[in-house]
Amino acid sequence: MSTLPSVHSATIDAIVGHAGRATLPFRRLHGEPYATAFWFNELIGTTDEAETIRQFLVTASEPARVECAEFTLRPNLCEPEMSAEKLLMTDFAEGWIHLDDLGVAVMSTAGLHVHGARKGWHWSTDEITDGIAAQEEDIARLGVEPAVAYLLGHDVDAQTGAREQAVVVGAVTRTTGGSVSWVGDLPHGCVGAPVFISAPLGGDSFKLVCIGVVLSSDGHNPIATFDRIRAALRTLVPDPGSAVEAAGPTPQAPEPKRRWWQRRS
Questions:
Q1: CB 86: neighbour CB atoms within 10 A?
Q2: β-strand 205-214 against 104-108: which pairing, if any?
Q3: What residues make up the domain containing 187?
Q4: What pTM, to 2 d.p., does this model score?
Q5: Tens of pLDDT along the chain (265 residues)?
Q6: Residue 260 domain-assigned?
Q7: Which of 35, 77, 243, 251 could crosslink 192 through cysteines, CB 3.0-4.6 Å?
Q8: Residue 255: inside a domain, yes or no?
Q9: Residue 80: which CATH number?
Q10: How many domains does the chain divide into?
Q11: How wide is the angle at C-alpha 8 spanned by C-alphas 7 and 9, nearest 5°?
């Protein structure tokens, strides 16, 4: 990325530009818990002509263990735009695979794409890609000194229950045991959200890194990091229905997205 006058503002802009349509708020039907999921493309292989990926929704394990749930659909996630604002799912818990002891659950998005096609629309999303998701070396650079971090999730309006997206500014730190934790406010409904940092490249230049998924446990908020998530995903039996082959030239950049998000600090 090019040098920018304000790394803080530029990081927020980069998060919204690259992942603003990656998050999807959900809750148990008619009640708690509330959480955030996000789209992730796992890179399986690459050739000169194409990349092969598996696509998942990713979230925290505990909110995914309910039998009936509803996703809140923002208009710009569907083309053509849907009149319905909710997507109800029965047997919700059965659709998730829980990754070892990471506290993370993943769902193949194949069924979501089939559902949209059957109803006459298709998903128009961003995804956390292999190029943004943290590698081992990105996690290794984190230390015990808190580093500025950004959470992209959907809080819950106390009056209306609305699930607006928020960029929440906090910090991440490595504990003495080697795990990584979120330091700061975790708004209601943001469990399962992706957490980002800006990795410096010299001067004011940086690269955007999604370090993992924020969880909730006994008053603190551990982060399941993408190096461990990747390792767990490699153990899953491949599902041909979840693979997407992208051939040909790189798609053109999407049109600028509407600024319907909020900043929090």
A1: 11
A2: unpaired
A3: 7-247
A4: 0.86
A5: 444 448 889 999 999 999 999 999 999 998 899 999 999 999 888 787 788 889 999 999 999 999 999 999 988 899 987 766 889 999 999 999 999 789 999 999 999 999 889 988 999 999 999 999 999 999 999 999 999 999 999 999 999 999 999 999 999 999 878 899 999 999 999 999 999 999 888 777 889 999 999 998 766 899 999 999 999 999 986 554 444 333 222 222 233 333 233 334 3
A6: no
A7: 35
A8: no
A9: 2.40.10.120
A10: 1
A11: 95
